[in-house]
């Protein structure tokens, strides 16, 4: 009982510590609100028109920033659907097998009807031993959350949450509105900051708030601009911060395997309805488990398909493995529903004859 109790206390302390970065940001924002609204607008700005315009614009940026930040923090990360989880019988069967090749045969049977294109670098099925599921494309296990997250980008300590499929749009808007919030404060505070250095302001408490407010806004603007620019580039390329190495497909690794062009990449995150693009309202496309691919690289080990040849098996009821190479955009599940992933009978017969591949072992990826 003692180890269990100490473990619970340790996890409780960790959960409290994880909220410290969020608390820090909240304190900074609360102070900036007081410094801008009270000390700058109310106490220092004399012109009534300028004061009203600054207050209205500030509260607009503040509201959008706080809304996006809240949604990023409290939107739960999505986990794989139950179809990707192993049944109790499959778990028992997998645990009883010691040979990696046999384990891979079990996983291939489980994954044959799942919309999965990616593999491990050695060509094995991506399997999470801790969650006991076949990983969907772009899914990774978060060690902090201790679960597999759909389209995981990273675990962000500043929001104490995993940034993934369910809240990536909110995270992008959080960065955008944070940057606009800081730029607006720095721009409107600049003239009073200059007056402070030229002794144009009375020696009151307000001038110290004005000085530190400008420094803080300028500093955060620099860091946020680089971070926001980097994530804009990732959205345009349809990649994530975890893509330090190109995703591996059946035909090989391809860093642009999920890229459909800038417009469609953008709409995957922000949706098709333009009225929701700037609002922290969920509008992303898809279910997070299946993603369209648009690969042009051919598999060097795959024999060329003759013109007019249809690689779909003759019997629709047969069990099929994954496609020899990812489907093009027009065949993608997200762009054209109702399509199925099939492979030629030749590849299936090859598997049935027990072709040995020493690289086909279970690999647990993060």
Q: What do you see in this structure?
A:
- With 366 residues, the protein is mostly helical.
- Helices cover 46% and strands 6% of the residues.
- The chain contains 9 helices and 9 strands.
- Strands 1-8-9 form a 3-stranded antiparallel beta sheet, with no helix packed on it. A two-stranded antiparallel ribbon has the order 2-3.
- Helix 2 (20-42) packs across helix 7.
- The longest helix has 33 residues, at 205-237.
- 30% of the residues are buried.
- The model is unreliable at 296-364 (pLDDT under 50).
Can you summarize the main beta sheet? 3 strands, antiparallel
The counted number of beta strands is 9
Please write the string of helix (H) and strand (E) elements. HHHHHEEEEEEEHHEEHH
Q: List the total number of helices.
A: 9
Mean pLDDT: 81
Judging from the principal axes of the Cα atoms, what is the shape?
elongated
Strand content: 5-15%
Output the structural class: mainly alpha
C-alpha termini separation = 31 Å
Which percent range fits the helix content? 40-55%
Instruction: Identify the strand order in the major beta sheet.
Output: 1-8-9
Radius of gyration: 26 Å
Q: Brief description of this entry?
A:
The protein has 366 residues and is mainly α. Helix content is 46%, strand content 6%.
List its salient traits.
46% helix; 3-stranded antiparallel beta sheet; mainly alpha; 366 residues
Topology, element by element:
Elements: H1 2-18, H2 20-42, H3 48-74, H4 88-96, H5 100-111, E1 118-119, E2 127-128, E3 133-134, E4 140-142, E5 147-149, E6 154-156, E7 161-163, H6 168-197, H7 205-237, E8 248-249, E9 252-253, H8 262-270, H9 345-352
Helix pairs in contact: 2-3, 2-7, 3-6, 6-7
């Amino acid at each position: 009982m003692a180890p269990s109790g100490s473990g619970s206390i340790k996890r409780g302390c960790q959960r409290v510590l994880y909220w410290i970065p969020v608390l820090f940001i909240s304190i900074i924002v609360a102070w900036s609100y007081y410094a801008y609204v009270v000390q700058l607008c109310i106490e220092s700005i004399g012109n009534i028109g300028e004061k009203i315009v600054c207050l209205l614009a500030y509260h607009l940026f503040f509201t959008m920033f706080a809304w996006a930040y809240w949604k990023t923090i409290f939107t739960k990360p999505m986990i794989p659907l139950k179809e990707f989880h192993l049944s109790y019988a499959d778990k028992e069967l997998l645990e009883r097998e010691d040979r990696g090749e046999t384990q891979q045969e079990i996983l291939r049977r489980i994954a044959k009807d799942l919309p999965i294109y990616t593999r491990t670098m050695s060509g094995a099925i991506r399997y999470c031993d801790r969650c006991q599921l076949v990983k969907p494309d772009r899914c990774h296990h978060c060690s902090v959350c201790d679960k597999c997250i759909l389209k995981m980008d990273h675990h962000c300590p500043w929001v104490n949450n995993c940034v993934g499929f369910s809240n990536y749009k909110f995270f992008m808007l959080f960065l955008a509105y944070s940057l606009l919030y800081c730029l607006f404060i720095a721009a409107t505070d600049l003239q009073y900051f200059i007056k402070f250095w030229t002794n144009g302001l009375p020696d009151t408490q307000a001038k110290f708030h004005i000085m530190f407010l400008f420094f803080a806004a300028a500093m955060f603007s620099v860091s946020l601009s680089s971070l926001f620019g980097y994530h804009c580039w990732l959205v345009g390329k349809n990649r994530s911060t975890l893509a330090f190495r190109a995703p591996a497909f059946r035909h090989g690794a391809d860093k642009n395997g999920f890229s459909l062009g800038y417009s469609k990449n953008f709409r995957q995150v922000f949706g098709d309805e333009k009225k929701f693009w700037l609002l922290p309202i969920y509008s992303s496309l898809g279910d997070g488990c299946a993603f369209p691919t648009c690969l042009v690289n051919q598999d060097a080990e795959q024999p060329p398909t003759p013109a007019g040849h249809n690689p779909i098996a003759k019997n629709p009821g047969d069990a099929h493995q994954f496609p020899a190479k990812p489907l093009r955009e027009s065949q993608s599940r997200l762009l054209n529903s109702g399509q199925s992933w099939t492979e030629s009978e030749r590849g299936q017969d090859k598997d049935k004859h027990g072709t040995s591949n020493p690289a086909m072992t279970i690999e647990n990826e993060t």
